[in-house]
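Example record for the data management plan.
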Amino acid sequence: MLDLFRKYRIPLLAACLVLAALLLYSVHLRRQERTTLFERGVLQLTAPLQKGIDRVCEAVADTWSRYLWLVATEEQNVSLRQENSELRGRLAAMEEIRLANERLRRLLEFREETDLPALPARIIAVDASSWFRTVVIDKGGEDGVREGMPVVVAEGVVGRVIRLAPRQARALLITDASSAAASLVQRNRIRGISRGQGDFLALEFALRQKDIEVGDAVVTSGTGGVFPKGLMIGRVSEVNRGEYGLFQQVTVAPAVDFSRLEEVLVLLGENP
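Corresponding structural encoding:
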């Protein structure tokens, strides 16, 4: 302790002198109405020290309050981020429900318009290979599905059932190369065969002199034994008559967006 006092004796002595001066100044200030020369000197000497002490205290207090504020703000931010994440998840779920309801509503309206018994089904698998274009639905033989039955949506033809299981069925998409449907151009009733070409269809056997234009709607003719008459297949996207040959080349863009296919209807047959 004595060594510590010897080491810091000068600062301690100065502090004691300043403290004594302040005490003396305080006593005289209460008893005298005027400021003496000694008091003015004390004020001049101690003012910078008091100012420095005030600044240090303010800085420490400000830093401490800011630290506490930052800690509270960080906790609040974490809570708000978590709440925001939960609300965004709920909003996404509600949007998914809304979209599903919209698709189901269109299917229900289409089912009522066709006046045919239809079985709603959900797509549970998609063929990922480039050789075949098929989908698997969650309805099968036990639900009344049979091979060859057409599969449709409100926008138009999807395909037909080609394989059956008790609870599932595989449907061949109309855009598959092995798929074909008897068709006609809705505007002028020109007949042909719509054959799948991967991402589009080709309207085959349309005579070169027949009037077919880009934008014409192509529908099922009802003569192929699979699809009822009048179902939408797609619209003509390209026409090439050429200079020779008996038939013109007609490309049809499918009405159905197969990349977004989720729910379908299986047409079970004519009403008894």
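Summary line stored alongside the record: The chain has three domains: 2-62, 120-175, 180-260.
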